[in-house]
Amino acid sequence: MMLFHNFLAHKKPIYGRFFIAETTLPVVAFLVTCIAASLSAIASERPNEELSMQTAIAQSLNRHPDLASFSYRIRSAEGNIQQAAVREKPVLSLALEDAFGTGDYSGFDNAQSTLSISWILDKKLVQRRIGKYQTEKSLIDIESEIKIYDIAAQTAHAFFAVLALQERLIIANKARQHAKNILADVGKRVNIGKAPAADQLRAEVNLEHRELELEDIAHELKSAKIILASMWGATDVNFSLVSGSLNIAQQIIAYDELETAIQSNPEIRHFLTQQRLAESEIALAREEAKNRPRLNTGIRRYESTEDYGMTFEVSLPMGKTSRNQGRISALTADQDRYQADSKAKEIQLLTKVFVLYQELKHSYHINTALERKIIPRLEEALQETYKAYQQGRYGYQEWSVVQQEVLDAQLALVQTRLTAHNNTIELERLTGLPLLRNHSTP
Q1: pLDDT tens digits, 202-247
Q2: Helix 27-37 crosses helix 123-191 at what angle (to 10 degrees)?
Q3: DSSP designation for 372
Q4: I need a labelling partner for 220 at 20 to 30 A (CA). Which of 75, 138, 296, 406 fits?
Q5: What is the DSSP letter of 145?
Q6: Does the pLDDT value for residue 169 go beyond 80?
Q7: pLDDT at residue 105 above 80?
Q8: At how many degrees (to 10) do helices 396-431 and 123-191 cross?
Q9: How far is CA 247 from CA 144, 327, 343, 433, 442, in A?
Q10: pLDDT tens, 178-204?
Q11: What is the rounded CA–CA span in Å between residue 350 and residue 347?
Q12: What residues form DSSP beta bridges with 402?
């Protein structure tokens, strides 16, 4: 569980964090760190052992097929950056004049030969190209971060689904054992004539229902384990159960902190980075439209006098520098669109966070009511009802109703805690805050 905690507890991401000149902790480096930190846990994970949250997420990040392509995309982006840094080759030329003509110029004696080198002043153009491809790589880094958050959250959801079913299985086992005890007690009372035979038949049906419920949960648990194992590409389950607790923390994070953290959401930063990419492409288009001078310098030899001289030439293309105006207008429109999309995404995320937070608060309220008020009173009522049943003041019907109410409340508590964990995980995914500190560990 600490792995996901450490991931989300890391310094909150800020705009521009993944640009080359400002890199602090690239997503790929994080992924390597996660894998390395949990290598021993993964290696020791053998069949019929418990599976921890830390190991489950580490295996998902290590083996999930959707992450494989990012390493190739990053390598491709790095290749583009490397290629963008290559400047135009200088041109070496040899010119021969006043030779192999007629009269005094029929031979080579009065010839002039010039050896020169020329190059274009394109340093700023190269810098613009590098900046563009660096920004494109930043987009890939952010997309990778989004995918990591999604996979980690999906794994956490699958993990808690298994954990909740394990809790339900424990409750169902207790209910079945309780039904057996009830049947034995009712049978004794029927045999001595203190209870009608119908009570025994109903107790037998109650036991059958408990057996069926237990079987249903066992089937659901098998499927949930397969779903969890599929997060790291496995087709079979090599763990017997997951370790952890569904108990939720007593304190809930302040909403203001969640609202502020929305600005660091990777999806919003993705739009902002697309704006920056459009800005880089605009700067590149303007630079490409400029008339860049070409310099030419060399040495000239005069054969008639056997003298040498230096040559120097500057050439500048003619024409207007507005030939990329259409492309610049299109990129400017894209830049404005990304800004509008960013604002729309921010509103959408704020709405999601608000709704999830309200649901989380409600789950906490239900958890407190069930744990501290409803279940203790029902358990006490069950004991009192059993005493009254033994004394003949209550029949089997009253006793059975209270037993079902206790079971329903216990299952409701499990479902409430699962809902709270799921809402917390989604808040983590949307904000990047380390809310897993609110998940209890064993």
Answers
A1: 999 999 999 999 999 999 999 999 999 999 988 889 899 999 899 9
A2: 40
A3: I
A4: 406
A5: H
A6: yes
A7: no
A8: 170
A9: 32, 57, 37, 20, 9
A10: 999 889 988 988 898 888 899 899 999
A11: 5
A12: none
Are 152 and 60 contacting, i.e. CB atoms less than 8 angstroms apart?
yes
- pLDDT one-digit tens code per residue, 33-70: 443 344 344 444 444 588 998 899 989 988 888 888 88
Closest listed residue to residue 255, CA positions, set 418, 421, 430, 419: 430
Closest by alpha carbon to 294, among 322, 315, 273, 312? 315
Rounded CA-CA distance 292/281 in Å is 18
**What is the model's pTM?**
0.75
DSSP alpha helix (H) spans, 235-324: 255-261, 266-289
Q: Which residues contact 347 (CB under 8 A, 6 or more apart)?
A: none
Strands 239-242 and 294-302: unpaired
Q: Give me the pLDDT at residue 45, please.
A: 42
For 282, the 3-state DSSP assignment is helix
Are 430 and 352 within 8 A, CB to CB? Answer: yes
The token pair at 245 is 């607790």
